[in-house]
Amino acid sequence: MSITLPRSLLSGLTALALATLPLQAPAADDLPLEEIQTFAEVFERIKRAYVEEVDDATLLRNAMSGMLGELDPHSAYLDEEAFRSLQESTQGEFGGIGIEVGLENGQLTVIAPIDDTPAARAGLQPRDAILRIGDTATEGMSLQEAVNLMRGEPGTPLELTLLRRGEETPRTVTLTREIIRTESVRSDLLEPGYGYLRISQFQSRTGEQVEAALSELEAAGPLDGLVLDLRNNPGGVLQAAVAVADAFLEEGLIVYTEGRLPNSELRFNATPRQHAAEVPLVVLINGGSASAAEIVAGALQDQRRAVVMGTESFGKGSVQQIMPLGNGEGLKLTTALYYTPSGRSIQAQGIDPDVEVARGRLELAEGSRQLREADLEGHLGRRGETRQRSEAMSERLQEDYQLAEALNLLKALKVIGQRPAATG
After folding, report:
1. Do residues 154 and 220 share a domain?
2. Catalytic residue (one of 302, 318, 332, 400)
3. Does 302 participate in catalysis according to the annotation?
4. 298: which of 236, 273, 340, 398 fits an S-S bond (Cβ 3.0–4.6 Å)?
């Protein structure tokens, strides 16, 4: 059998080329006749009675947005501007304030600020609730609407009203938009022999950049330990996460995905081309570590390649596919869940660290710092730049308690590894 939709509705559905909708005898995939009739009736009543005239294209786009937005917080209909904006983000350059946002219980929430951006410099933190963007309340706002409001011309101000967990009074911060050029990887030496590798998000070239950074660290001298910092990393490109984990693993499973469609079930395995093969590794995570960052942490944890330290991660374990449409628009659709090598689903669970260390600042007790030879004016030995660098690094570790504890753990692992076995 078939039904014919009202002519007034058909005029609004020409983009879908629906003159009739065939309905066959009862089967699992039949279109629900009653719901289609209800949809047609709602469409017709909006067209006829809404306080302002609404064109058919707008109504259809709203219907598509609602259809995807009600599935989960990460599926979305992307108009041409939103689709272009998403492509810019994965390529690493866009105009805005530099935060990854999500919906938590319907509330627009900061997932993570991106390193060295207005949001990071203003002190925004994971799970800060965004109550207003400028003069616009965020209640009921979609993720794409929020992104569109926050992005804009460099040099223009943006006011956010935030509510931090554990606080009762909202705070207002004013940021200045700028071109966000996100270099996703940076590296440094914490001390001679102890490397630091920071990944702020996973972009299409992150895997290559990690390999180059590791080669540079190894060229400076043998490594006794390495800290991989994934804190406040909101995720990004799945293949980049696989490439980063592969840089530290010689064999074994990295991640696998499961979904309804056969092509959504994928398995990614390590290849024997790792860097820093025997170097002890500590991975830092926190509540802003999400998605691809959790893939890397979970793989290295399950394969016993690294000690994971910090606090519980965000818990986004779903995979989104970006599907271009013929008109320059697109869909971002959740098609699978990913699992760590041991079969853990991270969705709404997160990664639990092996060693829990809360965010904090190290303060030395009064009188604990004693005069040393190196403090005496004109002392023999290393001077100048090396001394200044050492002082700067000490201050950095004092400000970042989690990083300091990661370095301490690596030093302890080196001591244990060098200690000779007892003989009887």
Report:
1. no
2. 302
3. yes
4. 340
